[in-house]
Write a structure and sequence with these properties.
The chain is mainly alpha-helical. The protein has helices at residues 9-16, 29-40, 42-48, 50-54, 59-63, 65-86, 93-101, 103-139, 141-145, 149-169, 171-198, 206-211, 227-236, 238-244, 250-253, 261-289, 301-317, 319-353, 360-363, 373-385, 407-434, 449-466, 490-512, 522-529, and strands spanning 56-57, 214-215.
Length: 531
């Protein structure tokens, strides 16, 4: 029999799961943590979706919702750490679902995850393009004067193209970029926090930051004391936290490229969530404290509602400091967009390897440098297509006082949250149902899974339902102000895709999709059969 003693522990574990080592295992444990930390990117989500929290509750929607939701997301992360430790494969989420619940569970989980990854790549890249445009506009008045949604979309396409090229060049280059990205986020966020503390001439009070509330959603006539405000308006702002702290499944998707993956990927998931939640909260609090005053001396809530964080930076810090802050953030968002491309392409590669995607042979093909280049390019193209509605301007204010709502951006980020988190919920639930018969890996939650997993699933379902709701009154069907440009198309995309997938599954896929397809070398099969 052939000698297989040269197999590393990672290759041996991968072989036990049915796969040969195809991807280059050049990522360290820190690099694995780094990609999720980069995708979470507090300098992206915290700033690009700031308006979602601000206009749906005000300061309390940020100062209270963020830490509360972060605890629940950390619980979700712990449950996923246990799963990736047991099954460290690139398929990650859908592989776990297939192993624990069968082909149907794996099929729908994989597609939900893939939809979410396409959307998060689109959302981060569009947010990056917006901040690149804001950075230049803050520095140049002539550039700002010629603003258009078409210009932002063009920058968005360039960002996607550059991220794609970098991903195709080398997997090892991506590992290096993610290592650099961690320090850019840590140092950059620290610099921004210090600027927001020391540069403004005045800051808001603790009372303002932790008790001030208002309702700019257009619903409930601006009420801030009704049950509707607390159980509908504020939850609309959950998008800020839930979108920012997502994408940590990248640790699983890159596990086949990570050394000591059973432990490293598990630690990477929960640590990326914990440090991002802590750093993001500090960052957001300093932003809210730095809210400028209006001419009458009161906090300029309306100005921030229409202009977002850029309005705060410019009016509290001045043009030069604001440009620095925006540049740091835009650069971080580019790192994030590149990491999203990496994660999405690896999931597409793994799902195609098991023939669950039309044209699988193309998307699972590797270059000489062992990179799924065609998968990378498809992620870029789909990300651009689902963001096309961003070319339509949505103004719920007046000509004199416009309030532009980025409905398409909120919809894309909602699709990301719904797709990714629902895909997480399936294996989390299946692991709970498996009970003590589940074979744990090197990292485990012990018996705490009995309460952690149900809480994780409940949080995901509740938040997903909220993110399918209309963002503004004009999006409510059959209302007098209804117009399609106001519609949150997140439920149309996600539920529509699930309907199409159900039809596909029932009519065809269930007859040929049997879950992950093993591609292990015969000699390794023989070796493990003898053990």
């Amino acid at each position: 029999m052939a000698d297989t003693t040269q197999l590393s522990d990672d290759e041996r574990r991968l072989a036990e799961l049915g796969y040969k080592q195809e991807l280059s295992r050049s990522w360290s444990g820190f690099s694995n943590f780094a990609i999720s930390f980069s995708i979470i990117s507090i300098l992206a989500g915290c700033f690009t979706n700031f308006g979602a929290g601000w206009n749906n509750g005000g300061p309390i929607s940020i100062s209270w919702s963020w830490p509360i939701l972060s605890v629940f997301i950390l619980i979700i992360g712990f449950t996923m750490s246990e799963l990736v430790s047991a099954f460290p494969t690139s398929g990650g989420i859908y592989w776990w679902a297939s192993k624990l619940g069968g082909p149907a569970a794996g099929f729908f989980t994989g597609w939900l995850n893939l939809i979410g990854l396409f959307a998060v790549t689109a959302g981060v890249s569009y947010g990056c393009a917006t901040f690149i445009d804001l950075t230049i506009s803050t520095y140049s008045e002539s550039y700002a004067a010629s603003y258009s949604l078409t210009r932002v979309f063009a920058i968005f396409v360039v960002v996607l193209a550059l991220a794609s090229v970098l991903n195709i060049f080398s997997s090892h280059l991506m590992a290096i970029m993610n290592n650099v990205s961690v320090w850019w986020h840590v140092v950059g966020a620290t610099i921004i926090v210090l600027i927001l503390i020391f540069v403004p001439d005045q800051h808001q009070s603790f009372n303002y930051v932790f008790t001030e509330r208002f309702n700019n959603s257009g619903f409930a006539d601006g009420s801030t004391s009704s049950l509707f405000f607390f159980f509908a308006i504020i939850p609309f702002g959950f998008l800020l936290t839930q979108y920012t702290i997502t994408g940590f499944d990248a640790c699983a998707h890159l596990s086949e490229e990570t050394s000591s993956a059973s432990m490293a990927a598990a630690k990477g998931i929960w640590r990326s969530i914990f440090y991002s939640a802590l750093g993001g909260y500090i960052l957001l609090l300093t932003v809210v404290f730095a809210v400028p005053n209006a001419a009458d001396g009161s906090p300029d809530n309306a100005g921030v509602g229409g202009g977002g964080v850029a309005y705060i930076f410019v009016n509290s810090l001045g043009t030069n400091w604001a440009t620095v802050v925006l540049f740091i953030s835009a650069s971080a968002q580019f790192y994030c967009a590149t990491s999203c491309q990496t994660s999405a392409s690896r999931m597409l590669f793994a799902f195609s390897r098991d023939r669950a995607v039309p044209g699988s042979s193309h998307w699972s093909a590797l270059t000489a440098k062992r990179v799924p280049a065609k998968a990378v390019m498809l992620v870029g193209v789909v990300s651009a297509l689902i963001t096309l509605p961003a070319l339509i301007e949505v103004n719920i204010g007046t000509a004199e006082e416009p309030l532009i709502i980025p409905v398409a951006f909120y919809a894309v980020t909602s699709i990301a949250v719904i797709g990714l988190y629902l895909s997480f919920a399936v294996p989390i639930y299946l692991r709970w149902r498996k009970g003590d018969d589940f074979e744990v890996g090197a990292w485990t939650n012990g018996r705490k899974y009995k309460w952690m997993n149900p809480i994780a699933v409940a949080e995901i379902v509740i938040v997903s339902v909220y993110l399918m709701m209309p963002f503004v009154p004009g999006a409510v069907p059959f209302s007098d102000d209804f117009a399609w440009k106001f519609v949150n198309y997140a439920p149309i995309v996600t539920l529509g895709m699930l309907l199409l997938l159900t039809i596909w599954w029932q009519s065809s896929a269930k007859h040929w999709f049997k879950g992950p397809i093993h591609n292990i070398d015969p000699v390794v099969v023989e070796t493990f059969d003898e053990k």
